[in-house]
Amino acid sequence: MISKILVPIDGSKAAQKAARYAVDLAQQLKATVIALSVIDRRSFMPQIIPASDTVMHVIEPIEDYLREAAERHAEEIKKLCEKNDIRSKIVITTGHPVEEIMKEAERSKVSLIIMGSHGRSALGAMVLGSVTYGVIHKDTKIPVLVVKG
User: Fold this and answer.
1) Counting beta carbons within 10 angstroms of the beta carbon of residue 83, is it exposed (0 to 12), middle (13 to 18) or buried (19 or more)?
2) How confident is the model at residue 140 (pLDDT cuts 50, 70, 90)?
3) Neighbours of 103 (CB within 10 A)
4) What is the three-state SS of the chain?
5) Domain limits of the chain?
6) Distance, CA of 131 to CA of 137 (rounded, Å)
7) Per residue in 89-129, pLDDT tens?
């Protein structure tokens, strides 16, 4: 029986489509949706840009900017769940996406992972390896449903 669905989100169209699919399935099964956004530490250099070096004269660590974006993406899914009377939870972590997805799936004891077939870019998937590919090839008993982008 499927009672908890984990849906990794990154703001891409494929992730949004997977999230809508997860919400529809959760509604039919009366399951909970856990929206997970992973801030990939490899995608930025952890440094603060001095205000004098910026056009807007703003001090903002890149990680804070990425966290705000992750929160916005997660909030969209939460609103969709609320609109459809589905219990939901938002989790935002930092680390390697595949590892963080698997950790959260095990920690939350999810029944199913639903994710999009493409993430941020095809070029990124070629160079860095696809997160979806990494998740489906992990040694786990948790089923993964891939929604074609």
Assistant:
1) exposed
2) confident
3) 15
4) CCCEEEEECCCCHHHHHHHHHHHHHHHHHCCEEEEEEEECHHHCCCCCCCHHHCCCCCCCCHHHHHHHHHHHHHHHHHHHHHHCCCCEEEEEEECCHHHHHHHHHHHCCCCEEEEECCCCCHHHHHHHCCHHHHHHCCCCCCCEEEECC
5) 4-147
6) 10
7) 999 999 999 999 999 999 999 999 999 986 455 555 444 34
Pair of tokens at residue 125: 């998937």
CATH 3.40.50.620 fits 4-147, yes or no: yes
